Q: What sequence folds into this?
């Protein structure tokens, strides 16, 4: 049984991983602060920010330590992230009374320059590239080398 | 916090971000000159944080203290991460892009600091 060597992520993945880490930090710190100081003011918005932060952190870890499991986890996390940002974005536009304060995903992430909306798409594009799947050990390498 | 100084640091960080973007687009890893400039940016941020802490210790109270200190910590810890990435022997043009993103994020955080002061 061949063991997958955990090499650092190469190429665009390094940038995407860094951006996810940055968002995990900013959304996480913000959510922690808001939940600690004024949770009752807008519980739904702050809880959503916390959920978003956990997803960002999970994605950052998966992007940094490639493995087949990390690849699948990242795909699921990014799909949830995209559904979340579109769903929360729509809700926050249609029913403004629902969120008393902005969350990371409110109005499609306008507070963060719409990066939350674009990031999962770029991430999924990068993850589904054949070279990335090989690098994560999720797909076999094009040229198989015999190993002992 | 002195608004003029904070805005000067903001502009310096934006320039670093554009510089990093140019390196990334032209497919060059962060070079020594660029990393030295980023290090100067970090020195500015540390000095700004020290001054802010001294003024807070002297009695100034930002309206949202926890938030302010959070952003203050972010402005100090992020650039060293970029410098470490850039100094790696395997650094390539994607690390230039990482530093461009990080310096931009810190520039925004400096603006937030100014608004929260």
A:
């Amino acid at each position: 049984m061949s063991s997958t060597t955990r090499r650092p992520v190469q190429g665009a993945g390094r940038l995407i991983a860094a951006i996810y880490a940055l968002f995990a930090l900013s959304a996480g710190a913000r959510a922690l602060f808001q939940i600690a100081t004024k949770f009752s003011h807008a519980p739904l918005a702050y809880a959503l920010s916390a959920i978003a932060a956990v997803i960002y952190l999970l994605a950052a870890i998966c992007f940094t330590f490639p493995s087949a499991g990390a690849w699948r986890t990242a795909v699921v996390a990014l799909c949830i992230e995209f559904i979340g940002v579109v769903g929360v974005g729509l809700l926050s536009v249609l029913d403004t009374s629902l969120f008393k304060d902005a969350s990371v995903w409110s109005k499609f992430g306008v507070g963060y320059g719409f990066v939350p909306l674009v990031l999962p798409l770029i991430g999924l594009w990068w993850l589904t590239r054949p070279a990335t799947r090989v690098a994560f050990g999720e797909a076999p390498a094009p040229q198989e080398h015999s190993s002992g | 916090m002195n608004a003029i100084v904070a805005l000067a640091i903001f502009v310096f960080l934006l320039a670093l971000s554009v510089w990093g973007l140019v390196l990334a687009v032209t497919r060059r890893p962060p070079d020594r000159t660029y990393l030295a400039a980023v290090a100067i940016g970090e020195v500015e941020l540390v000095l700004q944080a020290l001054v802010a802490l001294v003024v807070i210790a002297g009695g100034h109270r930002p309206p949202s203290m926890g938030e302010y200190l959070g952003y203050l910590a972010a402005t100090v810890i992020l650039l060293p991460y970029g410098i470490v990435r850039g100094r790696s022997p395997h650094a390539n043009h994607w690390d230039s892009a990482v530093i461009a993103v990080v310096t931009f994020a810190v520039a925004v955080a400096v603006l937030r600091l100014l608004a929260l002061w």
User: Anything to note?
Assistant: Chain B has one domain: 3-116. Residues 29 and 89 of chain B are 10 Å apart (CA to CA). The radius of gyration of chain B is 15 Å.
